[in-house]
Amino acid sequence: MLKALIISVGTGRNREDIAHCICFSISNHPPEFVLFIVTEKSERETLPFVTSKLSGLKYEKRKISDENDVQTVYTSCKQFIKEIPYKPEDIAVDYTSGTKAMSAGLLLAAIATNVDTIIYIAGKRDTEGRVSLGTESALTFKPNIIYAENLFDYAISLFNNIQFDACKETLKKARNTIYEEEFQNKLSLLDKLATIYSEWDRYNIEKAFNEINTIDKNQMQFLSKWKIKNRIEQNKEFLYKEKNDKFCIERAIDLLENASRRANMEKKYDDAVARLYRLLEYGAQIKLSKKNIYKLVDNECLVDFNALSEELKTKYEKYGERLPLVRSYELLEDLGEEIGRFFMEEFNKKESMVKKLLGLRNKSILAHGFNPVEENTYLEMENFVVNFLKEFYPEIKNIPSKIKFPVIQG
């Protein structure tokens, strides 16, 4: 049973006609409480015809100060709805009678507060355009459809702005509003996509790949509609390569793109610089891996000093199996790799850009210091890292679209 019914009260042709429609609405949707939205005139001339037929039904009334101002009506009605001791899901609103501004304002307030049902009394019209007595019928509409679609649109916006956890929380709210199958299906798919890219954004490559692999043919219709089907397929291919090779150019490009998201979309320059540092380190590790100098221990790649000559083993063993960035490049130089020579030459310069940037990174809150990283520091480091690595990994010059996260359209 409906708990609360809110009805706008107009004056109509002779007052009794409006009272009849209002009583019809109450009898069709019998509540335990009615709130009448009245004007000074309708309170005086129409409401008595209604209340005389309520048979003890509990009711209250609220008066609109200006029934011809939509904004005033909307603001007042929104407040009235919030004041009554009923939850939105237990409230229905009938906006049939009253001025056009009253009807519009009450309707907008009903949608804004997400009441359960909106009612309009229709019927055959007489020569004056009024519903003829005895022909009334109640038309109902569930505004939670609007609320649910707004939540879904907001969830898409969050997804497109890489706020994946917030996207999933918003989808939880939308899931409990309407239960139409197609709507629930697209909610489930967006939730799946948010999971995929949340995992990927945190470098849980295998989890992201396993999840993207569960997208089925039935869900492809939404991907096509959202204009992201090709991008999803490209991302899947890219994740597959990363999953199967811990030292590949795809992971390097992924690190660079991740740094870009942190900086350009979130303005988290400390996080972005930390990723650029890791990318610079990873650039050395790829080359070392090609020389079979790493061993896999508990899913972690460590330097296998037994793969080195005695001279190099003696020189580098003191740094431990997790060789620091600079020592990794120094080892590459000792192994005759051009990338190592190039890096160490830059590092040993008196006015070394490498030392400057690594120093700024080391002083950041995410490393060993307390200084925030500013945008210009990030841009300097990005420029250096990209220009340095592209000399030896030309694939970095143009980040392929297949690494880009999808942006849902439509």
From TrEMBL:
One Pfam family named in its UniProt record: Cas_Cas02710
Lineage top rank: taxon: Bacteria
Residues of the signal peptide: none
Cited InterPro entries: CRISPR-assoc_prot_Cas02710, Restrct_endonuc-II-like
NCBIfam families: TIGR02710 family CRISPR-associated CARF protein (TIGR02710)
UniProt name for this protein: CRISPR-associated protein (Cas_Cas02710)
